[in-house]
Write a structure and sequence with these properties.
The chain is mainly α and about 150 residues long. It is built from 4 helices and 2 strands, in the order H-E-H-H-H-E. It has a domain of about 60 residues: AF1531-like domain (DNA polymerase, domain 1, Orthogonal Bundle), CATH 1.10.150.280.
């Protein structure tokens, strides 16, 4: 049973890897047949219209320019955008935007180089004499007011 599970997973992985690594179609260089077979939702008529428009007006400057082609509008264009390009680079809609200004650093006052460690220092202690002092003794001894009575023995 475990072997069968591994075989099914391997086949599924192989299928999805082929689908996910499909090549993008350059609408400025592709033939009508290539677009018909490679783009879902584009049949032979729409593919021929794309080629006809491209020959009459020159290459497309952006993916959105395809809306000028007869039969290519909102939903159709949205469906094929991830699969097409107008040049060597992916379309602008698939490339993440670069921020106009760089992001602020996570820690703004972080030094660029680590500080050099210093030599360890001894803790600061108050100046004392070399001879230890004895604890202060009371001036007069403290004597209990009532003497203790010895315990009786039986």
């Amino acid at each position: 049973m475990k072997f069968l599970t591994h075989v099914v997973l391997a086949v599924a992985l192989a299928f999805f890897s082929v689908v996910s690594f499909a090549q993008m179609i350059n609408v400025n260089t592709a033939t009508a047949e290539e677009m018909d077979k490679g783009l879902k939702g584009i049949g032979p008529v729409k593919a021929a219209e794309i080629v006809k428009y491209r020959e009459a007006n020159g290459p497309f400057k952006s993916v959105e320019d395809l809306e000028k082609v007869t039969g290519i509008k909102g939903k159709t264009l949205d469906a094929i955008k991830p699969m097409i390009t107008v040049g060597d680079m992916p379309t602008a809609s698939t490339v993440p935007a670069v921020p106009a200004t760089p992001a602020a650093p996570a820690v703004p006052s972080m030094p660029t180089t680590p500080a050099m460690p210093t030599a360890p220092t001894m803790p600061v202690t108050p100046a004392t004499s070399a001879v230890p002092t004895t604890p202060a003794m009371p001036a007069t001894p403290v004597v209990p007011a009532v003497p203790a009575t010895p315990a009786k023995q039986p």
